[in-house]
Design goal:
With 419 residues, this protein is an alpha+beta fold. It has eleven helices and five strands. A hairpin with a 2-residue loop joins strand 4 and strand 5.
Length: 419
């Protein structure tokens, strides 16, 4: 009965871990129903296997009985493929195997007390699942999305551990003294390697984010300087026109006195046209935000993207203007990139922003294809080097207590943000 309990418990644990490590293509409820159904079928298969063959054969074939359906389940439900799918599978195997081997060690040291085995399995599983949900799961999905090199090497190391721990080391943890001590030690070593890789990835990711934020800050400063230069140029042109106004009025007066009204009106129209050409559009009062709007709207129009903007902001906003400017820069940059995949006649950006009673932003643009959202409702980057803009926006919202929502409806991608 101890052997049957271990196999059945591991079956449930493998499926629970697969659910945690899976970013399903379907809704959470549908995914849970499918995983639960497969779990019940596998538990029945394990029970039948245990009764049909001897214990050694059951243990030997148990891994394949579970792991083959597991990878088929991941292949069916997960939106990842290739090395990412294998990394998901091997991560599930690593944590489940580690719980199995450590609980087997505790069971062995307790003098083979069954209640100790049950208690150690439950406690270890609860602790590992809490750690995965609380800390590791978000980082795990970032690795799947953003790690574009070296995945095969990570998978190779984890696959080597799986083969050695399950098939090459004889005996079973909790029953054979040698495997009871060797397998948990090997599992802890592999866990250390796993977390070192996680730490290295986190360091690289943080460095890339810092570089991206520095680039965005530089871009914001460049936009502000460009905006200030344009304003100064417009002011100088208007000052020149004002200086020449006296001469133009004298000319017009002379033309009117001669009765040449048509020429006088044409002269005034020409002067009016020069003034309109020098007029600089001001999108809002805060200079940093105005600079970002001007810079990115100019970029959009240069790319054949029509801009429909309705912006009403007071002189000052309730948050750091520079941080909000970076949010706008990221959002507008993403909108411009999304438009470039469309025919020119379909390119458009709609921007609405209010400052009272609260800062509210709605930015929308058409998109060429489907957008995938993760479990937190955030759009998933489809290309290497993308996705930092969304992360920067989310970091701003967390810091300032803002609420942001990404959605896709009728072919339009929409960002809504409320402070």
């Amino acid at each position: 009965m101890v052997e049957l309990f271990i196999m059945e418990y591991l079956t449930v644990l493998y499926m629970a871990m697969a659910f945690l490590f899976m970013d399903s293509r379907y809704s959470r409820r549908r995914t849970l129903l499918i995983v639960s159904g497969v779990t019940l079928l596998l538990m029945a298969a394990v029970a039948a296997l245990y009764r049909a063959v001897d214990t050694d054969t059951a243990f030997w074939t148990f891994a394949m009985t579970i792991h083959i359906p597991l990878i088929l389940l991941l292949f069916t439900l997960s939106r990842f493929r290739g090395w990412r799918l294998i990394f998901q599978q091997l991560s599930v195997v690593l944590f489940c195997t580690l719980i199995h081997h450590i609980s087997g060690l505790i069971y062995y040291l307790s003098g083979s007390r069954f209640w100790v085995l049950v208690l150690s399995c439950v406690v270890l599983s609860a602790c590992v699942i809490w750690f995965l949900v609380r800390f590791l799961r978000p980082l795990f999905f970032q690795i799947l999305l953003e790690l574009h090199r070296g995945r095969w090497l990570i998978c190779l190391v984890m696959a080597a551990y799986y083969i050695i721990a399950v098939y090459l080391i004889p005996g079973y943890a909790g029953f054979d003294s040698r495997s009871t001590f060797i397998k948990p030690a090997l599992g802890l070593m592999m866990l250390g390697v796993y977390f070192i890789l996680m730490f290295l990835f986190t360091s690289i990711k943080n460095e890339m984010e810092a570089r991206h934020n520095a680039q965005m800050s530089t871009l914001q400063l460049s936009a502000l300087e460009s905006r200030m230069e344009a304003v100064k140029a417009a002011e100088n042109a208007i000052r020149t026109e004002r200086h020449d106004l006296r001469h133009r009025l004298l000319t017009v007066a002379e033309l009117v006195s001669r009765g040449d009204g048509d020429t006088a009106l044409g002269f005034l129209d020409a002067a009016q046209s020069r003034l309109v050409e020098q007029k600089e559009i001001r999108w809002c009062r805060p200079p940093g935000l105005d600079a970002v709007f001007a810079s990115y709207f100019d970029q959009a129009q240069n790319q054949g993207i029509s801009v429909e903007a309705n912006i009403s902001l007071p002189e000052t906003v309730s948050v750091n203007e520079g941080e909000l400017a970076i949010v706008l820069a990221n959002a507008l940059e993403n909108a411009i990139h999304a438009n470039l995949d469309l025919p020119q006649e379909q390119r458009q950006i709609r921007c609405k922003m209010l400052g009272l009673p609260r800062v509210m932003l709605e930015l929308s643009n058409p998109c060429a294809g489907a957008v995938t959202f993760d479990s937190d409702g955030l759009p998933v980057a489809q290309r290497e080097g993308h996705g930092f803009g969304v992360q920067s926006i989310c970091a701003f919202c967390r810091k300032n207590g803002a609420v942001c929502q990404f959605s896709l409806a009728d072919g339009w991608f929409r960002l809504s943000l409320v402070l």
